[in-house]
Amino acid sequence: MDNPNAQTPFLQLHSDAFRAIVEELSDHTKVLLSQTCRSIRHMLQKEKIVPALSAPEHVRLLVHLSRGNPDVWVCATCKKQHPVTEGDLWGDNRFSSCPNRKFSRRREGMCRINYARVQLALKYSRFAIDNSRIDSHLKRLIRPEGSVLRVKHRHNLAEFTSSSRPRVIDGRFLVKYTWKYRLHSGSYTPSKMPSMMVCDHQRLLRPAGGVVWGEERKQLFRTVLQAMLDDRNGVEYCGSCPFCPTDFTVRSFDNRMRIDAWKDFGPEDGPSNPTWKSHSLSEAQRTPKHRGSVRRLYYEIY
Ligand SMILES: [Zn+2]
Ligand SMILES: [Zn+2]
């Protein structure tokens, strides 16, 4: 019997046009395409287009193949699927179902973001509307977190609170972080800057820290300095990181300071996705200008 798929317009294309279209695809997508039907696989093999996948591309393929299965997640360390357990819903490597527990992880303040959490939250956001079990899983993965810390800062009592609030917007995993600092007496001055970071590339160091940063890594430092020196009435000063999709704002009020940051951890893909990788210090490369766009996207209504 003739293959009915052979008559589809896509397969009727001239081989040059077919090749031009398919070569635009990433390697793992070419392999996915080759699995859709025998006719396409035959065309791809005839044109010698089906690639051998690198390890990161193999993981991306597994992530895309598991999109319809809410009971598994793909581990980049083991390069295979793991069944989802209660521990995975905490998004913390200590409770992970992975026996190796070494996969890529982000830790900002009290919010631990590992890739399993991002992957599952994005997957569950597609299922949650029709499924109450998945909806409760999703709520745990995007739960707000917070902490209060009282510390002695240069003989001065200080209170430090941090919170994080993840959201899934337009198929991307975003997190808003807030850090609030309050001195019990006196006011914040440049010499009393707290030691903190909004991403791997932008951090505040006390002047005695001694670490030299290039100008592009001083965006947060300069913004805080501006807020401290120019105004103390809570006027908002904005900045963004040139290396990763992180926007931040700083407000200074005499003995208090507030820093907010909005971060985009990317779409449902493998950990080799450029957005996810850009948050790592070792992957620091200039990203396309995004100033303010992550913050705006975070407040979009879908
Ligand atoms: Zn694993
Ligand atoms: Zn950054």
UniProtKB/TrEMBL annotation:
Residues 264-289 are annotated as: Disordered. Residues 272-285 have a biased composition (Polar residues). This is F-box domain-containing protein. It comes from Bionectria ochroleuca (Gliocladium roseum).
